[in-house]
Amino acid sequence: MPKKTFKQAITEAHFLEMRRDPRVIVMGEDVAGGQGASGEADAWGGSEGATKGLYTEFGPSRVLDTPLTESAFIGAAVGAATQGLRPVADLMFFDFIGVCFDQLYNQAAKFRYMFGGKAVTPVVVRAMIGAGFRAAAQHSQCLYPIVTHIPGLKVVIPSNPYDAKGLLIQAIRDDDPVIFLEHKLLYGVTGEVPDDSYTVPFGEANVLREGKDVTIVALGLMVQVAMDAAKELDTLGIKATVIDPRTTSPLDLETIVESVEETGHLVIVDESSPRCNIATDIAAQVADQAFHALRGPIKMVTPPHTPVPFSPVLEDLYIPRAEHVVTAVQATVPAKKKGN
Amino acid sequence: MNASIQSINMPKWGMSMSEGKLVKWLVSEGDAIKPGQEIMEVETDKITNVVEAQDAGILRRRVAAEDETLPVGALLAVLADASVADSEIDQYVDANRVVAVDADGETSLISKIQVDGRTVNIMDSGGESDKAFLLIHGFGGDLNNWLFNFEELAKHERTIAIDLPGHGQSSKDVGDGAAVNLIAAVDGVIDALGLKAVHFVGHSMGGMVAALAVIGRPAVAGSLTLLAPAGFTTPVNEAYLASFIAADDRKEMKRVLSDLFAEPSVVTRDMVNDVLQYKRIDGVNAALGLLASNALKAPEAGGLAAQLSGLGCPVRIFWGAEDKVIPPPQSDAVYAAFDISVIDGKGHMLHMEAASDLNAAILQQLATD
Fold first, then answer.
1. Which sequence positions of A are flagged as catalytic?
2. A188 touches chain B (CB under 8 A)
3. Is the CB of A172 inside 8 Å of chain B's CB atoms?
4. Which residues face A54 on adjacent strands?
C-alpha cells in the first residue's frame, strides 16, 4: 500500500471529494492566494499548503480566498452549507475560534434541531491545533473541549495519515457541521494510505494495541506518546491497551468502558488544558459507568494549567511526554513481576 | 559451515509482517524433530500460527526466547545430527544470529496490470518462467490471504497471487458482477505475463474462477487445485454473504469472520480491522453485492462438477469438514468422480488453517507436468 504523509492524506481527501461532488468548495485565507507570485505557479493552498493544487484543478469558483475575517467567512461557509453547498473552511489556527464562535455554536450547531430536522448544515471547519510549533500562546492551544461541549457539532481529531483521509472524507459527506482538527506536528508523519476513496466512521475508537493491565486513552499527537509509553511499559512487565477515540463527539465510550472492564485501570493522555478537558470528561463518564471495574484511581496526563509558553525550553516541558504516561500508569497499576 | 546444520528462521507471513513474537516453544532441546513437526508458536500483529520444521534432525539449540520479538528471517532454532559438535553449533549461531532487515523488500513483488480498463493488482515472486502458480482468493478476500502459502510455493516455482476485481488493491469495478468479469482479469494477467503452464490454485469464489478459467482455455492449464470451491455442487451460504456485506462495525464483522474458521478464536482485532477498512472503500460493498447475486448465484444443475469432468489437467479438491460457508459435497458420485480430500477439524479458510498440508499437496501438482 502506498505511503503518504498526514498532509498528503488531507490534500488527497479534498481532491477526491471535490471530483466526486461538485457541491464541495474550499474557502479560507490564502487557499487561492499566491498564484502568479514569484516562484509560485500555483496557489499556496493555505498556510501549510494542505490544499495545494486544488486551485489549479478546480479554479476560482470552488477555491475561494477570503479576507482576514474569520467571523465573515465561517459565517459565509455556514450559510452556504444551509443553501446546498458543502464548504470546507480553513480556519488556519483553531485558536481563532473565538472570533467566529457564534456562527458555529449558536447557529450551525442549532439549525437541524431548531428547524425540526428540515435543515442540514454540511460544513467542515478545518483548523490546526497543538503546541510544539514555536507559535506562542495564541497559536498553540488544543481547544477541542470547547467544541466538544456543544451538542450539534461533531469533533474529529485524527492521529495518523490513514485516519486523516478517511475521517475528512466522512466529514465532507456528513450532513452536520464538523470541526476537523489537525495537529501541526503530525503533517510530516508518514503511513499507509490507499489511493481509493474510503471513509472512517465517526464514533468508532481505534484500538492500537491490546494489553491486560491498563487502558491508555489518547488523542491526536498524544496517541504516539501513549504508544511510546506502552513500549516502555512492556519492558516493566505492564501490558497496556492503547485506544484512540478519533472523534470526541460522538465519543466511543463503549470501547473505552469495555477495555477498562478488562484492565481495571485507566490513564487518559490529553494535550488540552487540564480543567474541563477530554480527560476529565472520559474520567467522569468511566467513573459513572464502570466504577466497580476500577481497581485503582483514574490518572490524567495533561499539560499544566497555563498558556502555552513561547520559550522553546518551557514549551517542550509543557507538552506531555511518554515518561509522564509511564509514571501515571505506575501510580495506578500495582508493581508487577515481569511475565505476570 | 557444516552442511548438516539446518536453521529454523522467523517466517514471513504476508506483506505487512516485518517481525514476529515467539509465544511458546513446543519442543525441547535434544528432541528428535521430524519434517512437519510443530516447533513453536509465533504471533504477529495479525495472527498467531505454528512454525513447522522443514527438515529432520535433533533440536540442538533454542536460539530465541519465549516472549522475544524478532525480525523476519531471524534465527530461531538450530537442527543438526548428534554427530555435530557443540562448538560448531555455537559458531553457527554466532555467524547467523544477526539478519539484515530488508524493510521494503516485499513491495517490489507488487505490480499492477491493466486489463480492459481495470487495474489488476498482483504479487509476483518474479523470474522469467512461463510456468507459475496462480493463486486466486475468495469473496471479500485479497492476495494477502495466501500469507502462509505464497513464500513456501515461491521457493519452488514462480508464484503469482492476484487481487480479483472488487478486491484488495485492484479496481472496484466488477461490471454486472458475473463471473466473466473476474475470469477476464485472470486471463489478462496470464496474457500480460506470457504464462504458458499455469498451476491454478483457487479458494472459494476464486476456486470457481480458477475452474472456469481452466475450462475456458485448457491449453495453459498445468493443474487445478480447488479449496472449498464455490459453485462446485452446492451454493454459498447466502446468510454468510448477506451478513459479510452488511457488517459495518467491529463486533458484527468479527462474528461474521469467525464463521470462516473451525476455530473462531483465530480471528484477531487486526484481521477484523483489515476487512472493515477494505469494506469502507468506495464501491466495495456495491461490488460485493453484485458478485453475491450474480457470480455466486446458485449453480446450475450439476454445478462446476459437471463441467470439470473429463478435463485434461489434474484436478485436486480440498474441503474443511467444518466449513460453514460452503459445506463439503454430500453426493457419493462426486467423491467417486473427483480427487477430493476432506480435512477434519478445519473450516472454510483451509489454506490458512491447514497451510503446510496444503502447501505440500499444491507442490505435488508440479510433478504432474
1. 139
2. no
3. no
4. none
